[in-house]
Amino acid sequence: MKTITLRLDDLTYKLFLQFALADDRPISNMIETSARKHLEECFFVSDTEMRDIRDDKTLLARLKKGSRAAKARSGRFVE
C-alpha cells in the first residue's frame, strides 16, 4: 500500500466529502474506490459490451483484416 498527497480544489473536496459521508466511509476510501472504478471503466469492457463485440461478425471481420494488414505492413495507416 502506498500513501500519496493529493491536492483538490474546494468544490471537488466537498463533493468527495459529501459522497463519503452519505456512504458512511472515509473520504480517502471514497477517492480510492472512485478512481479505481473510473480506471476499470476506461481500460476494460463490461461482459455485455464484450458479448456485443463478439456477436458483431462485421466488426470481427474488419478487425481481423486490419490485424493482417498491420502484420503485413500494408494498407493505409492513419495518424
Tell me the fraction of residues in β-strands, as a range.
under 5%
Shape: elongated
Question: What integer value in Å does the Rg equal?
Answer: 21 Å
Q: What count of helical segments does DSSP give?
A: 4
**Regions with little confidence, pLDDT below 50 for 5+ residues:** none
Main sheet overview: none
Mean pLDDT: 90
What's the structural blueprint in terms of helices and strands?
Layout: H1 10-22, H2 27-43, H3 47-55, H4 57-71
Describe the structure.
With 79 residues, the protein is mainly alpha-helical. It folds into two domains: 10-43; 46-74. Helices cover 68% and strands 0% of the residues. It contains four helices and no strands. Helix 1 (10-22) packs across helix 2.
Main features:
79 residues, mainly alpha, 2 domains, 0% strand
Give a brief rundown of this model:
The chain has four helices and no strands. By secondary structure, the chain is mainly α.
